[in-house]
Write a structure and sequence with these properties.
Length: 153
């Protein structure tokens, strides 16, 4: 009988440890579920914000009769010419010397943003401007990289 008592005690200890481990797993999984729900809520908010931004951009394009689906519209020489014309009309004559061109590195380029609140085009050498300006959306130019030969920089 003494052996049977020790055997039952060992089984009871194993059962108690097993229950404690299961309780630990339940608590950790619940905290993970809570974190996942929080992340899902934040992602949902980001998706809604992206949809709203896309809708605003579509409305703005429709307002100005801009067809962004047109092949290469934003990267076209006509668009570049229009942007330069607006800059010169706003700030006056601009003189660029050979030294000015030499100062620009091959890795330098201008990022194009749209301020969706003021509906202004923003040209900047700060390529991370949209990360700390909520109202700025970067124009994608059909997923081009600065190394593309037809990207103006």
């Amino acid at each position: 009988m003494d052996t049977l008592f020790y055997f039952n005690a060992a089984i009871a200890i194993c059962l108690a440890l097993g229950c404690a481990y299961v309780i630990y797993l339940v608590i950790t999984h619940r905290s993970q579920i809570t974190r996942n729900r929080g992340i899902a809520d934040e992602l949902y908010k980001l998706i809604l914000k992206a949809r709203e931004s896309a809708k605003i951009n579509q409305d703005m394009a429709a307002l100005y009769n801009i067809d962004f689906e047109q092949n290469g519209y934003l990267g076209s020489p006509a668009m570049l010419s229009s942007i330069i014309t607006v800059i010169i009309a706003k700030y006056g004559d601009l003189k660029l010397s050979l030294d000015d061109f030499k100062k620009v590195k091959d890795s330098d380029y201008v990022s194009v943003y749209v301020d969706i609140k003021t509906k202004e085009l923003v040209l900047s050498t700060d390529h991370d401007l949209s990360s700390y300006q909520d109202s700025f959306d970067m124009i994608d130019f059909a997923n081009r990289t600065p190394d593309d030969s037809d990207t103006y920089h």
